# Entry
Amino acid sequence: MLAVPFPYIATTAGWMTAELGRQPWVIYGLMRTAHGVSPQVSTGNGLFTLLGFMGLYALLGMLFVLLVMREIVHGPEATAVEEQSEPYSEPMRAQGGIR
Amino acid sequence: MALLWFCFATAMIAGYVILDGFDLGAGTVQLLVAKSENEKAQVLRSIGPVWDGNEVWLVAAGGALFLAFPALYASSFSGFYLALMMVLWLLILRGIAIEFRNHIDNPLWKPAWDTVFGGASAILAFVFGVALGNVVRGVPLDANGYFFLPLWTNLLPGADAGVIDWYTLLVGATAFVALAVHGSLWVVIKTAGTLQEGTRALNAKLWRGLIALTLVISPLSFAIQPNLWKQFTTHPSGIVFPALALAGLVGVRVLSARRKDRGAFLASSLYLAGMLASVAFGVFPNVLPSNTAPDFSLTIYNAAAAEHGLVIGLWWFIPGMALATAYSMFTYRHFAGKVDER
# Structure
């Protein structure tokens, strides 16, 4: 349960290592990041979309935490109750029922 | 080879519009027809197993453009920067709405996500139409093949037009209604009872709007983009594309009135493919016309990748698409039939 954040830390850290470690190249050895910038997109537009992404990701992140916390608080017993409300399936009966 | 890739890219985009088009349209159906929470869930279940597979076609179409016409890809992604970022946000919100909705059984949670889903679906259908309108009208390309469009300026399709002007608004409205017709036919196939009857009624209403919009938009497109007239007069055989679209549009009404719902859905797919092929044929050999200096237009020749790259691309593209087609067919067969009404 406490391990929930670790896969996210691992993937994010790996991604950042790849992206930041490659600088100043956008394609290593071929194209510099400075040469890949869209000349027509203004700083203001870039800032607007950066803030938009930050807002959207903050919202989605909070919802994700909320849902994960609910699942944890919910606990595994709740699923057992749900399964009991349905008739036992054959393999479950063979194993002597559930919990 | 560039011509072959132009045909491939058109086919990919048509594939995307037909496939993701019906699940975007289903969002409109959910917004307008489905009343109870159960009906809304049924609409979602009808697209549940297939919507994300359909969106792969957007990525694949983008990938095909990147591979075959890198200059077009670079130019349009920076020129339509704001519009494309908003499309991305809408796609994110729409996907999240489908995934999050069923996690909390709460009288506020589910309707809120249903509204996000329906709203984002409807706006996306509209925005894709606006994008198509921009490709027909042309954009202010400079000598380097770049441009930048604000979202709107004076709403006139002149040289200083933004992404949105009255012409692209009309194309957007047409796309919204066309995909709602398409999506409602899908929902009719997948559901039964009052939801199905309500969707049938909506389909009949929308169809009248669609035929009116199609008849308005077609001559306007010829007025806005002179290349259409040039193409259809020098190669009259191209008339087959709008003819197919018209046949599809008539077929939708004829077949759905006789309750041949699958046939009607295929007719609506034919309409969408016919309209897109007409646009592709009409703007050819441009891939993105310039509305300020015709010489700066991006064509299939000056935007194409090197010949070697285009040939190598075929070796990956053909097996890749065969694989995608195969798993799509498997999924659709596996989940054929009506959704549960519970």
